[in-house]
Design goal:
Elements (H helix, E strand, L loop, with lengths): L1 H8 L3 H31 L2 H5 L2 H26 L2
Helix pairs in contact: 2-4
Length: about 80
C-alpha cells in the first residue's frame, strides 16, 4: 500500500492533471446515470435500466486511474 501511495505521489504533473479531469468527467457521468436510475423508479421503463450507464461511469473512473499509472510507467521507461 505504501508503494502504491509513493507511486501516486511521483506521477508526472501533466498525467495527474489529465487523470483529475477524467475523474471529474466520470463523477458527472455517474450522477447522470444515477438520475436515470432514479427515473426508473417513477417511470418503470426497462430501457432506462438496461442501458448500463452507472456501470460504465464506474469503469471510466477506474480506467482513468489505471491508465494514469500505466502512462506514467511508460513515460519513465522512455526517459531512461
Amino acid at each position: 500500500m505504501n508503494k502504491l501511495l509513493e507511486e501516486f505521489k511521483n506521477i508526472d504533473k501533466s498525467i495527474l492533471k489529465l487523470m483529475k479531469s477524467g475523474i471529474k468527467f466520470s463523477f458527472v457521468f455517474c450522477l447522470f446515470a444515477t438520475l436515470f436510475l432514479a427515473t426508473y423508479e417513477t417511470v418503470h421503463t426497462p430501457i432506462l435500466f438496461s442501458i448500463g450507464l452507472f456501470k460504465t461511469s464506474l469503469f471510466f473512473f477506474v480506467a482513468f486511474i489505471t491508465y494514469a499509472f500505466a502512462f506514467d510507467s511508460v513515460r519513465k521507461i522512455q526517459h531512461l
